[in-house]
Specification:
The longest helix is centred in the C-terminal third of the chain and has 17 residues, at 132-148. The protein is 48% helix and 0% strand. The chain has one domain (7-19, 50-148). The protein has 152 residues and is an all-alpha fold.
Length: 152
């Protein structure tokens, strides 16, 4: 099971991220590569509490959906709606300079996956309270999902 807790898995994600270019063609979804980088950075900032995000958590999302999304060997489907604060066409962080934004994402991935942490885990907008193990699994899966949309 891949996770940001595993150095090999984390290194592989960062290697794939380095292959991303601003003009890379997407296979699906609406985001440009640059918007996707900012989306992921916003998502990591939400887990550290640096970016407030509205909740859409309910009993089903906190239990069944979280388990289905996190642990079976299934890939996430495309087109799942995101919170407005994570959408670069709504309240998400606007892209500025591609290389700087990629560097910011790399820093957030490193910050979220290294110990000791300088933050407390915050609630996921859909899954609510999550353990460190769950957050590190989610971080891997979310980053992998976004990179695969660009063939990486």
């Amino acid at each position: 099971m891949k996770t940001l807790a595993n150095e090999t898995d984390r290194t592989d994600l960062l290697r794939r991220l380095q292959q991303l270019t601003p003009n890379r063609q997407r296979r699906c979804h609406k985001m440009s590569p640059h918007q996707m980088v900012c989306h992921l950075t916003d998502s990591f900032k939400a887990l550290t509490g640096e970016k407030p995000v509205s909740s859409k958590s309910n009993l089903v999302s906190r239990t069944a959906v979280r388990w289905i999304a996190s642990y079976p060997p299934l890939r996430w489907p495309h087109g799942v709606p995101m919170r407005p604060e994570m959408d670069q066409n709504q309240g998400g962080t606007q892209p500025v300079e591609f290389i700087c934004d990629v560097n910011d994402l790399e820093l957030m991935i490193g910050r979220g996956s290294s110990a000791p942490r300088d933050f407390q885990w915050h609630r996921h907008p859909l899954f609510d309270e999550m353990s460190e193990r769950d957050w590190l699994r989610w971080g891997y899966l979310h980053t992998d999902h976004q990179l695969r949309q660009f063939g990486l």
